User: Fold these one by one.
Assistant:
Number 1:
Amino acid sequence: MAAEDKADGRDEETQTAAPSPAPRSPTAARRLIREGLFDGPTGALAPGQVQAALAAVPAEAALAFAAFCLRNPKALPLLAMTLPGERRCPALGADVDLARDLPAYRVIEDGGVAGEVADAADLWRDDLTGFLIGTGHALDAAFAEAGLALRHRSESHPPPLFETNVPMEAAGRFSGRLWVGMRPFSPSDAVRAIEISGRYPMAHGAPVHMGEPSAIGLDRLTTPDLNPPSRVAGGETPLFWASSRSAEPALLAAGLDFALVSPPGKLLVTDLQTERARGF
Amino acid sequence: MAAEDKADGRDEETQTAAPSPAPRSPTAARRLIREGLFDGPTGALAPGQVQAALAAVPAEAALAFAAFCLRNPKALPLLAMTLPGERRCPALGADVDLARDLPAYRVIEDGGVAGEVADAADLWRDDLTGFLIGTGHALDAAFAEAGLALRHRSESHPPPLFETNVPMEAAGRFSGRLWVGMRPFSPSDAVRAIEISGRYPMAHGAPVHMGEPSAIGLDRLTTPDLNPPSRVAGGETPLFWASSRSAEPALLAAGLDFALVSPPGKLLVTDLQTERARGF
């Protein structure tokens, strides 16, 4: 699968180790990160590729987390999972090493965030099970390709994220409230954004809400829980998409002795092209 | 979710226990089966509803089976999964009891088929984990709705199934060869069938092959491995869709001490409407 998805000749950038200009092939992007030459947000790397969030949980909690993802497919669409002891993930790239190929790893210990590391090879326990979760990265790529102007891009930041009062479907020890990302659009663009995103179930699909923020428990849009706010202009409608950020609070609340999760925006660059976020 | 998906007033059939005419609501269909009044193939029950195959495996093998499904999404699209001890599956119907709501259960013991039972309540172990897998039932519904003539329907049997020589992606102890269902179409109808099925990833999506059967290891189309053959008329092309029948051989080869699997065509009638097989 990886070989088919890789465009011909895209690997030429792997010849150069220089971090600038940004690598265009996913292999080059992962290598740069693996070698410790890049530790920032992955948004600008390898345009057109699906980027995945990571949650790695101990085997004893993994079955429940798999069910949690399946029961909340808009927030946590499962692109791939590994079995305990597997750090490779060939479905997302032949060379992928889950413990090293993300720019940063948030370390969860005894139900709290213990810190962040740039490389998790020394922390990766034999019983860790990796879940690779689709993100809004492919959504923004699809919107841009369709010519839709994205407010957060013109404002040079990621979409503002909010914790709603909408409960997720629980599975075993995992539960929590849904996080959403907000993108404002004019009515005609909102219709197109809904149409387009509906075709990408592996990138959160259609919005979970549009319009009145209070309907999902949000007081105001000017104070997101994460990332800077996006201006909503007169006549525009705020659209809310489920966010893979929903994973971290659920991992924390589950009281796991240990887990790893990707920090927001610091994702695995995969060999899957955006088109594949339409589903398999 | 179940409540939203249920069309208004469809439950009126639940007032009658008579097996004839065939119940139109999924609740009525499940009740009939649960009460032992129906044990045949579910194809004609509750038109327009997604029907799911069941695989129930012990918890110790469940994580690997979840990964096996995710790695082979065309054959084994996961509609839902339960955790050990859960027989209910509210995502597919508020009243669903996985141990009683299928017309039959094939019992796997020590790597072989030990027999079939009409009710698995006495066999359902506390460590059993249920996987509900999308089937071609929704595909046929979508084809019929689009006005495509289905050969196997005019021949009054399910689609012929074949074991190919195509290896599935392994996960832990699970591996095996892909099974496919064949439907012949004229070239123009074949194009439409590919277009339409591609929109239903939870019902096997687009075909895995079209044309020359030998390319996927099939000698002839006149001797399917399961179900009667379908005639391929002059000028028609055989199209091959991945089949949820791929699960059973993989369960057998895994050498499990115990598992349950739905016999072909004897499926769980769910509250999901066909439209939902497009993905979530």
Note: The longest helix of chain B spans residues 59-71.
Number 2:
Amino acid sequence: MIKVVLLGGGNVAHHLHEALRLSKEVDLVQCFSRNIKSINVFQNFTPITKNLNELKEADVYIIAVSDDAISEVSEAIPFSGKFVVHTSGNKPLNVLSKKNKRGVFYPLQTFSKGKEMDYSKIPFCLETEDERDYNTLKIIAESISQKVFKIDSEQRKSLHLAAVFVNNFVNHLYKIGDDICQESGIPFEILQPLIEETSEKVKEMQPLEAQTGPARRNDVKTLDAHKAQMKSENQIKIYELLTDSIQETYGRKKL
Amino acid sequence: MIKVVLLGGGNVAHHLHEALRLSKEVDLVQCFSRNIKSINVFQNFTPITKNLNELKEADVYIIAVSDDAISEVSEAIPFSGKFVVHTSGNKPLNVLSKKNKRGVFYPLQTFSKGKEMDYSKIPFCLETEDERDYNTLKIIAESISQKVFKIDSEQRKSLHLAAVFVNNFVNHLYKIGDDICQESGIPFEILQPLIEETSEKVKEMQPLEAQTGPARRNDVKTLDAHKAQMKSENQIKIYELLTDSIQETYGRKKL
């Protein structure tokens, strides 16, 4: 069993606590948070502490704190030469203090509080400074998930950016769809099968091929009708920019 | 049983043929297409014709042709006083010829050729000029799907616009995510669980609440880092506009 200490009390720490304590390869020996209240609920399963000087011996220390606190926490750890990883998609490996061996253990998912998750489907993106440490992370990740990838800091930066487009921005488009429905007294629920189908489709084909709609067809009549229909300046701007972008992608020829 | 004649040979006609012939409330008496080849495969199940003068007697005539052809086909039908509907989300009821009783039978879904669909989850949006015809469409729709809504022409226009945001534009954001991955040698597959989770989330909460990410948090450092990272002018423009729109929605205060 690989001995793990988990540091952090937020969303990611809570989900990792759940996943790690259920892993058959992991002995979760301790959890740490400065704000001990945030991890009180772990007590039934795992010893907890709010004191870095009480950290137990482990094979890996997983720092699952907010991006801005990673550096500080990793500096404050009162030992050196051990294996310490962070869990951020947004930070390079080298934000961790040099005094320990370093790595990244990044679960690429949007974690919501309290929402149950199927960890086996979450992609884990792993990186280590020293190749010899890689296998430790790999064993842990593979005991949780079927999807484990070796991703370096440069790639992780790109991945995080791509995730903003396919998650944060996509959700904002859902929100605009919801606004349009609400204005017309239509339940948003009507759109949900379409939303699901759109997301399912790109499992089977590339998004480039999956594109449909008036911009793709260069259906100028519909495009004009839509623009005339919108009242919000903001909606119009987004409509125009994304339509232009689709038309640039496929050329403006009428299909 | 409600006697139905289906007109059209495209994607929607093919899917409706499948759904209608399996319906226990429908007697699909005939299919029509000018381009008879496009519906040759229906022959094993349903009589076909390419001649409008040979249209059989039915309770409903469903015109599932391209938006621009609806008017023409409905004019060319050689009878009057019967019940004729179209299937377009994009056209009002009154594009149909006045000589028949009119309605709309609109399945809100993105139909891909050859892809099997679970019709029971497709929302059907129904409208009739005469209230007395509504029940006929309702019986047919409810025999196919669990989700049947009464939606008038104005609402349908809004719904179609909303669908462009949550389907066409969302797919384009997937495409940009794919581009960013490809540039960095990352398999797009890594993003799929996140894409799925994002679409699942709005079944349980409103998109307004579900929003996460650097724009929502007003995390200026990450926003700047992302902008510096992108090479494509087009990506930058979309990133900035959607970030602005999210910040406007939630205010620019740091969370």
Note: Residues 153-183 of chain A form the longest helix (31 residues).
Number 3:
Amino acid sequence: MIDLDLICICDVESTGLNPTTDEVIELGCILYSLSHNTVLQQVSTLMPVSVDVNPVEHINGISAGAASKLDGRPFQSEAIDLIESIMAYADGILAHNAPFDRSFVDRLEISTVASSVPWIDTRSVTWPRATRQRCNLVELALAYSIPVWSNHRALTDCQLLAHIIQREPDAKRLLEKELESKVWATWRTTVNDKEGQARAKAAGFRWNDKTCPANGVWSRLMHPDDIAQLPFDVVVMGADYAN
Amino acid sequence: MIDLDLICICDVESTGLNPTTDEVIELGCILYSLSHNTVLQQVSTLMPVSVDVNPVEHINGISAGAASKLDGRPFQSEAIDLIESIMAYADGILAHNAPFDRSFVDRLEISTVASSVPWIDTRSVTWPRATRQRCNLVELALAYSIPVWSNHRALTDCQLLAHIIQREPDAKRLLEKELESKVWATWRTTVNDKEGQARAKAAGFRWNDKTCPANGVWSRLMHPDDIAQLPFDVVVMGADYAN
């Protein structure tokens, strides 16, 4: 039985979407205690990048000049060490759309520690108050009546997630379920069934997901307990949870 | 000529108002670059306290149990080390009502480093958009159209201050003026002049301030440049800025 208490909520801001060619420009994390339902520690740091201009400065507002400001300063590496220590101690690392953040963390020195801890993608969680499943962080925060007035800085996004968790009474169990075995729920329809497709999408289903063993179906990897709550009938296919 | 760039915005949450008997329960700071007008680093950590119950848990929401959760863990001291490194490197340490925060920081191991850097009390700054001077942090944030939906956690309060600075075009000069010599502006009135007293109060004047060399007057320690902007006539008394 998985028992989560200390979780590390993590967020990466980057210079683009490609972890092979783009770089981490800011890294942030929050150490959160589920048993105390509160934030224990927070840390974020800009990271120097090799480019002179951040191609996505219009999104995250971080200039390459600001990011280079800390280059070679002791507190630059001290902040990374602190993030590494927090990750090493956490029962799980959380991120919203975790595969994205993880692909960038994998390229940092902290990757060995980060990959020794199970990751939980909060976008895959079936949040009871979400108006549609697999929605983005801002939409999810608003569904939880959390005021949003900025995003796309690492710690701001971590804090939105911390507030969502704090307001969700069942958070601990919801997150633990993400670490248990899941199955593929699949659903087939016709091209013209727009209403059915919208309903599947709102339930977090994706069409022709490449990671799903069935082709040409709407599907979602889910905890078996959540299948019964779907508003339509699905075909279930076994699949172990691949973290 | 003082030239501020990297500032450390600092906030202490404590178990009470008395630095001799009460303890720091959370410490947070933001490293902010005035030249880039952006946040470079953020860090906060709960700190173990000797009491079983935090007497002001109803204010800051921090339980003694949560604060003790980090006791003896490596990242507890790593976070403090990071705060110390940031303070050591900063051109100034900022806090809203700085004497309060400083009295608590003075009791921590980081006090030697913290006292080697000039402190700036942002409550003493003449903020152009403040509806009244020397107001509290929430009032000041609202005057700058910054949404406030929580306070009294260390990093939340630092972030409010960072947003105020980010929105104030003249922030660099306003903060630098706090480190220059100041004078006492004093104003005398009668007991019944309620309107005049309210006006003096809104301008940040206090009655019978014990640190003012004159008795029985309304007074404020100010930068000489700001005297002319007062909406009433004052008597100026020389006084060096005592940091």
Note: DSSP finds nine helices and nine strands in chain B.
